[in-house]
């Protein structure tokens, strides 16, 4: 899952949100200096990623992309699934996506002193380009895919995946909807175990 899903799946616990969001920027076990709740958020993120990678519905989604993108198929699916979460946000949350984005950015700003440098570096772009709310439309997803393609020095060709999204839109949305039910249950169980 990508940024929006990880933030959403953390519930309303600020420290879980921080840990879940920064987890991709924390290597190995270099997290012991964080509070226990932030460590739990990092653990939650890693469990979500493992669950997602192994899930049969996600594998079906990846198969639609694998021939064209190879091992980048999972990254693309994470981004596409965030599109469906953003687009259908009102089905999953009681506050608007705009409010969630603003509260998240405020939370990050309040905790700059503990965030990894790479997280601090992307926050201005997240804010200026409104990444989380932009995921709800094609242009926002296309921009995310273009950005990821640049990070691979254009090897991945991920920028082309907007075409695949349009071609298989209904199938990807059905995959996301069915998978996300399972993922929400799984994430809630992990949180209850802390």
Overview of this protein structure:
This protein is an all-alpha fold and 194 residues long. It has one domain. Helix content is 72%, strand content 0%. It contains 11 helices and no strands. It is globular. The model has no long low-confidence stretch (mean pLDDT 96).
Concise synopsis of the structure shown:
The protein has 194 residues and is mainly alpha-helical.
Features:
single chain; 194 residues; mainly alpha; 11 helices; globular
Strand and helix map with partners:
Blueprint: H1 3-8, H2 14-22, H3 36-54, H4 56-69, H5 73-87, H6 97-110, H7 117-129, H8 131-134, H9 138-151, H10 161-167, H11 169-193
Helix pairs in contact: 2-3, 3-11, 4-5, 4-11, 5-9, 5-11
CA-CA gap between termini: 21 Å
Strand content: under 5%
**What percentage of residues falls in helices of 4 or more residues?**
over 70%
User: Which class best fits the helix and strand makeup?
Assistant: mainly alpha
User: What is the alpha-carbon Rg in Å?
Assistant: 16 Å
Uncertain stretches of 5 or more adjacent residues: none
Domain module count: 1
The whole-number mean of residue pLDDT values reads: 96
Order of helices and strands: HHHHHHHHHHH
Q: Give me the count of strands.
A: 0
Please count the helical segments: 11
**Shape from CA axes?**
globular
